[in-house]
Amino acid sequence: MSNRKYCPFSRVVLFFMLGAVLAPAFVQAQNPFADFPQRVEAARKQWGAPGLAIAVVHKDQVVLAAGFGVRDVSTGEAVNEHTLFHVGSTTKAFTAVAAGLLVEEGRLAWNDKIIDHLPAFRVADPYVTRELTVLDLLTHRSGVQGTDLLWVTGLSSDQFLSRLVHAEQASSLRSQFEYNNGMYLIAGQLVGTVGGSSYADFVRKRLFQPLGMSRTTGPLHEIAQRENVAISHEVIDGKMTPIGLTDQYDAGGAGLFYSSVAEYASWLRMWLKEGKLGQKQILKPETVSMAFTPQMVIQQSLYPASQAAGVDLVSYGLGWFLHEYRGRRVNMHTGSIDGMSAIVGLMPEARVGVVVFINADHIELRHALMYETFDRALGGEFQDWSGELHSLYTSIAERSQERRARQLASLDSDAEAVLPLNDYAGSFRHELFGDLEITHQAGLLRVSVSRLLALDLKPAGSHRFLGYPLRRGFEDAPDSKKYGDPSLVQFEIGPDNRPRRVLMLGQEFERMREN
To answer: Against a cut of 0.85, is the pTM above it?
Structure first.
C-alpha cells in the first residue's frame, strides 16, 4: 500500500488546469463571436481602414457592438459603437419601408402612379412619366438614365425634380435592372408629400423614434452640430488623408443619413423579428415580406465579393439586394459615398444580422466581415474572408491601375493645345446636368461645374485635355495633393474653328450662343 497521502488540492489544481485549456473552446462553442473583435482589428489594419465600427445581432441579442481605429487620423480620436458614420445607400431601406408604412395606412399603394402624387414629376419619355409606379422607383426598374452628376451641381431635391424632364431612358421601363439613385430621391419626396412632412421628418418620427435611434440624423447640415462623428478619408499620395465631412449633397431618400452601429443594431433586430422590436410592432410582417421579395433579377452581380462567395443569382427587393449564401437567404445592401463605406447584411434563417461602417471609401473589408459573421452564426469552420477578399480586391485594383496607366500613356502629355487656350473658354450647357464655365487665366484652363466640382485642364494632344479635379480643402497644396485622378476632356471643333461641344464626365455639353 502506498504511503502517499491523499491530497484533494491536487484534483482542484488539475480541474482548473483542464478548465484553462477547455475554456476558450467552450466559450467559442457557446458564443461564436467571442474572438471576433480581435479578428476585426487585425483585418482593419490589414486593409488600412482608418476607423471601423461593427455591430452583430444574433438571436435577438446584440452580441457585438464596438469601434476600432480612429475617427480622424489627424487627431487620433477613437471610434466607438456610438460614432456617427455616413450610412450611404443603406438609407434606401428606410425609404422603402417609409413608403411601406404609408401603404399599411392606405394612403399609398405599391402600384400607384408617381404623377398622381407628384404632379410635377416628368421625365423625357411621356409614357414613362405617365406609367412609372412606386414599385418601379424602389426596385431600380425605371430605365431612366443615371443622374448622379446632378448631385455635384449642388441642387436641392426640389430642383432635382424640376430637371428630370430632360432625363432620357437608358433602357425601356421594367426591362432590366438599372441602379438609379435619382429614383430614390424621388421616392423620398413622395414619402414626404404623401406623409405630410419632409422626408427626413417622416423617417425620424415613424422609424427612428420608435427604434430608439435618437442620434441618427439628416439633413446633413445637422451633422456638424453633433459630437463623435467620423471624418471621411481618401488615399492621397499613398497616405490615408482626412477630407472632411460628406455633407455637401442633398441625397434625400437615396443616401441621406448618418448613424452609429449601436443604433443600427435596433434596425437589424426589427428586421429579424418580422418588423418587431421588443413588444413594439413597427412594421407589419407583410411589409417586411414585401421588402424581401425578389422584384428584379440582376443580370450580373455588382459585387466581386459575392461572386467569390459562390453567388450565382442576385435579385433586388425594396432597398435590399437578395441572394443565397451556404444555402440560406441573405438580404444585404452597401453604402459608399465620398470617403465612407457601409454594409448591412441579414441572414434571417440563422437569426443573425451585421452592420459595418468604415470612414474610407470602398474598403471591401465590409464584405469579408459580413460573410464571416454568417459563417460564425452557422457554426463550424469559417473561411478567412478578409485574407481572400484582400487578395481579390488588391488584384482588381492593380489591373485597374495598369489599364489607367496604358490609357494615360496613349495621350501626349507634352503636347501643346492646337488652338490658343483662350479660344477653348466659354459657357457650355447640358439640358439635364446644367451649365459649366470654362475660363482661361494665367495660362490655365479651368472647368467650373459648381462650387463642388472644378477641373484644371492640361493639353493631351489634338483637342484633348486631361481634367484634374480639384480636391476641396486642398487648393493650396502641391499638385500631387491638390488634384484627384484625371479624366479625359475632349472638344469638338466647328466650321468656324471654335469649340462647339465639350465631352466630359460621360456627357456632351453644347456651347451656348453668345449675345
So the answer is: yes
